Amino acid sequence: MRLILMGPPGAGKGTQAARVAARYDVPAISTGDIFRANVAAATPLGISAKAYMDAGEYVPDELTDALVRDRLSQPDCERGFLLDGYPRTTAQVTELDAILSDIGSRLDAVVVLEADQQQLVERLLNRAQVEGRSDDTEDVIRRRLEVYAQETAPLIDLYAARGLTEHVDGIGRVDDITDLINAAVDRRTSALDSDAMTG
Ligand code: ADP
């Protein structure tokens, strides 16, 4: 199972990614989490990434792509993976296509978690009080939402044109949203199966 979970900051990708990945017994790979771990450990990657993250900007593609290529080549990804927060730019889509073609595999589904802007800002401000993430201040949150709209939202059409997308409402009870995502993934994979059967 090879999945992408896409959606704006605050849509709940991280929470849902862990649950859905567990259901398919594949690793949930969050580029944001990997960057934060590198920032915390003050690795060269973390030192390079921190200023971008704190400003709400994307880390340059070269750094992000190298990280993902390395992670997807680990043995635990052989059975599949769930990507949370990658790809976020058209260049990253191209890179992911190249990585998948190099390992001879393809995506099964792109799940798009949706929520309205006001809800997202409220959630992120609440999370700021709980987790204290340095990029959860109001100005930076607005910038992250802007960058998402400019750079990442267009990828939804790109994957829709490939027939891979499923849209899920990200507002509601966490368990209900997980059920909706699971149903969406099942729909996609049965669509792929029947495509394969009809050639
Ligand atoms: P959110 O979902 O709230 O945007 P993430 O934890 O996914 O938060 O990402 C936090 C930050 O990490 C992003 O704002 C960005 O600076 C960096 N980042 C994560 N994934 C990518 C990516 N694919 N490309 C560029 N930067 C990324």
Provide a brief overview of the structure.
It contains nine helices and five strands; from the N terminus they run βαβαααβαβαααβα.
Describe this structure in words.
- This protein is of the alpha/beta class.
- Helices cover 61% and strands 12% of the residues.
- The chain has helices at residues 13-24, 31-40, 44-55, 61-72, 90-102, 117-131, 138-152, 154-161, 174-198; strands at 2-6, 28-30, 81-84, 109-114, 165-169.
- The protein has one domain: 3-Layer(aba) Sandwich (Rossmann fold), CATH 3.40.50.
- Helix 6 packs across helix 7.
- The protein has nine helices and five strands; from the N terminus they run βαβαααβαβαααβα.
- The relative contact order is 0.19.
- It has a five-stranded parallel sheet.
- The structure holds adenosine-5'-diphosphate.
- Adenosine-5'-diphosphate (ADP) is lined by residues 9, 13, 31-32, 35, 52-53, 56, 58-59, 64, 85-86, 88, 92, 135, 144.
- Residues 9, 13, 31-32, 35, 52-53, 56, 58-59, 64, 85-86, 88, 92, 135, 144 line the site of adenosine-5'-diphosphate.
